[in-house]
Structures
1.
Amino acid sequence: MMRFNGTAKIVCVVMAGLAMAGRAQQAESSAAPATLTIDASKTVGKVSPTLYGLMTEEINYSYEGGIYGELVQNGTFVQAWGDATWIVTPRGTAHGSTALDKATGPSAALPTSLKVTVTQADAANSLGLLNEGWWGITVRPNETFHGSLYAKADYAGAELKVSLIANDTGHVIASATVPGVGADWRQYTFTLQAGAVVASSRNHLLVEFNHPGAVWLQLFSLFPPTYHDRVNGNRGDIMELLAAMQPAFLRLPGGNYLEGDHINERFDWKKTIGPLVDRPGHRSPWNYWSTDGMGLLEYLEWCEDLHMQPVLAVYAGYSLKQEFVAPGPALEPYVQDALDEIEYVTGDVTTKWGAERAKDGHPAPFPLTYVEIGNEDQFDQSKSYDGRYAQFYDAIKKSYPALQVIATAPVKSRTPDVLDEHYYRRAEQFFADVHHYDATDRNGPKIFVGEWATREGTPATNFGAALGDAAWMTGMERNSDVIVMASYAPLFVNVNPGGMQWRSDLIGYDAFSSYGSPSYYAQAMFANHIGTEIVASELNGAGDRLFYSVTRDAAKGVVYLKLVNASSSAQQLKISLDGVTSVKPDAKLITLSAATTAETNSITDPRRVTPVESIVGGVGKEFTRTVPGYSIEVLEISVQ
Ligand code: AHR
């Protein structure tokens, strides 16, 4: 049974057969019958067990304001956001102001802080600082929130009060006092316990001071319950959506986010590990700040939680504004950084970086098969990638001969193990190119379709995009002997105004809830129903709007037939299933369909287009299937 976070329309109907001559489905059909001949005894290739996975980066508020559980916006008081995110809110006669203090902070990584100068306040007249979170702060009944901050004060006995407040009523949902703030920087923790509230994201955080004097704040943090109760962990609803896709891998940390606009804005992994107070954060190329609370170890734990293997992209000396590091001695520190990173991921505790990982709380090494050198290096106008790739390749192969080294652009200096190719297209382009990999050289590098998407619909994709995606996936499945991995991008979008930098994304959310686009459901359907072998098949007479793939799992005794009808008309298909002894007449059918290509899901209507599951009868060695117009179908046929 597919797992769809409990959100899919699953309707089980036993139909009287698939051979529908003279019945309604045939009456809808306007196209002539086509024939699909399958020989399940003939394997034409192995399906890659890692075909379907995920690609992630900080874009569209994917982490902060997205999957990463942190509720406080701008908790590290980055200057540009200081005024907008921490709003001074005096009560009664209270008076005061805030300013970024560049002279003091709790660590070398966070050398600045927010100085709160309270000129007048008392118990009844507090000076407040209001933080709206990421377009709201969700509170559900009886939830416990764990908070922390670094603080110091210029007077003895300073204290502050932290509360969650309902925007509409001013009702105090939960509050806690942080007493005894001293003269030196120290971390303080607190807990906020909600009662029997109505679940809502229309809440904010309020930090109050009731005594004149100066207090400095840094690294203000508040976490709700997280997936698997991870400290510094992820949002449960989004993790559930991902889990339902059964992804085999996570390509991290980008994308452009790996490269940064400038070399000093790259994903500098060593600055993303260890205590949060030791992470300086950095500007992402998508034009907002990242605290790097989602750092390398958090990515790896995300992999662990969803049983994915990491596909580790290492910075390769090229950043988006055409800054590059020439191959040779200048590149050596970056190569060493990549080797250290691999050791952090895979080394045991006796290694320098494996020990560092253990110190960070994860003694067990992570599995790693693939390392990717850079991202989209075809855009490097200096044409230095060939040389840079060779230098990384040689060093990695020397220390880790078993690792597969992915190139992001064609190179001549070495034969890459895998080549990463990206496709952002309209549905029509995918329809026209579904045979793209049919003739790919099977003796060359394997292929990683590391970013791909049909870009139709916004913020998340619509059903027309799902058709383009599904058609493209049939092509990838038929060629999954050479395509080792594929990952859609971008994965996430925060649907609030200003939350999106890249339209047409897979999963949308706000502070309160999340939803899958039709593309999401198409992917989950495909990934949850895939065999281990590609079997011989031939389609004739179907026109150019019907796409399909057939795979088989011999151990399970199942043939998976995927049918994508991108036409508005139904298509009748005469199917011959040869090379099997017997076929169970009842098969599982999962259908994703819509009346128009514009139909979609949204934050307010999240389940308009979702898969419907049924049992169909009449399946056999010869049967007819009428594929409805605008539909994506998976037929799971039991065979012997
Ligand atoms: O997915 C959005 C961006 O598209 C990625 O960051 C980049 O690799 C590609 O150009």
Note: The pocket of alpha-L-arabinofuranose is lined by residues 57, 59, 254-256, 375-376, 451, 489-490, 502 (CB under 6 Å).
2.
Amino acid sequence: MSGEKPAIGVFGAGWVGLVTGACFAELGHEVVVRDVLPERVEALQAGHLPLHEPGLAELLERNGERLTFTTELDEVVSAPIMFVCVGTPPTYSGDADLSAVWTVVNHLPSLEERAILVMKSTVPVGTGETVRSALDARGLAHVGYVSNPEFLSEGSAVRDFMSPDRLVVGAFTEADAGAVAALYEPLDAPIVRADVASAEMIKLAANAFLMTRISFINEIANVCEATGADVEQVAKGIGLDHRLGPHFLRAGIGWGGSCFPKDGVALKQLASNSGYHFQLLNAVIEVNELQKRRVIGKLEKHLGKLRGKTIALLGLAFKPNTDDLREAPSLVLASRLLAEGAEVRTWDPVADASNVLQGVTFCDSVLDAVTGADAAVIVTEWDELKTLASEEVRTAMRRPLILDGRNLLDPEQARSAGFDYEGIGRASSPLASLPETEEREHQLEA
Ligand code: UGA
């Protein structure tokens, strides 16, 4: 750093903290990011990024002058605006664990100058109010509090920060709201000014609505399978209605990640703690759990009992372009397959599951993973899998069965390459997509 006092301090060098710090540095601010893990800070100081996020390494390199990493509290609290980007994982009850947030608040020294604490971590509604009272009680009334939730998707977090659909700024005073909004001015994005509780709820409700869309389209997919319709065509037909829009209508084997599972349960729990039974959200979560497990039934339909069968799980990360395995459907699938007595071979280009999955074989290439397999399951829609339906793969497999959990492949192409193909919500029999006359001939031949 140039020796100037940082303009921005960031608590937490996880996904959100690193993206926030690097992007503010890119916008020209002096930023200091503080983490309590010395090994993480040392790695960052040495230029090693502890996670896979496209574009982030380049930002860190380009802005090295303006961006420092530290374990020291003094350095981060010298900034007039401090972003809280610490984890809020679920507790056993499903409530968000705010201990890291409270560590930050309780360790704030008695700052001489005016400062603003900005909450980016996802927290239950009411947290801001409680933090405000705690700050006041400690004689820190001159420390402002702003809720500024993040809407960063892993894999596209840098782009999401730099070109946001909107920014949400919830504050107790106009001055605090204005100071935080001013930081984002170069991004030229719509700013939603709200009270603190509403800003907190916007974040939880946005995630819950996105989950609802996915569970909705997954249930439509399941009904498509039962009735012979194709969910891809249905999603296109729905999405072109401008009132509905095309996003988050990709049917698949369910959502995972560090946000939806945790935030869904946290909102459900928040409602329930307040005496409200959030029926729809409960169903949305349950549909997702069932969706991950439907893959087992589909495999059994083709292979019978799975004991002794070899299944290749292709993709382990909860989505492409990240190495994040938190709540990834692959983990549920692998465990269920092992419990059924199957042999599981896995491949992922970046995610390393060796610490979380036992009893599976990790392979370095797709070809290695599918060799001798009775089925290949596309779990994560990595680009590398777009060419899965190849001659090389077909001859390497014991049985050429592809279960496409992300509807990544063209069913007709896969079938004409000699594979048995089954996607999600797509007619599973080739007969369903043949013209009527061909279909009859096919049936007669059979
Ligand atoms: C999500 C939100 O999209 C962000 O706006 C939010 O800021 C973030 O959570 C958070 O709370 O921090 P993220 O979990 O990184 O971001 O990833 P998404 O792209 O939302 O995907 C979540 C899961 O939904 C993935 O498993 C993905 O495969 C699945 N998905 C997504 C579908 O199954 N179908 C879709 O159409 C879209």
Note: Residues 122, 150-154, 207, 210, 214, 248-250, 252, 255-257, 259-260, 263, 318-319 surround uridine-5'-diphosphate-glucuronic acid (CB under 6 Å).
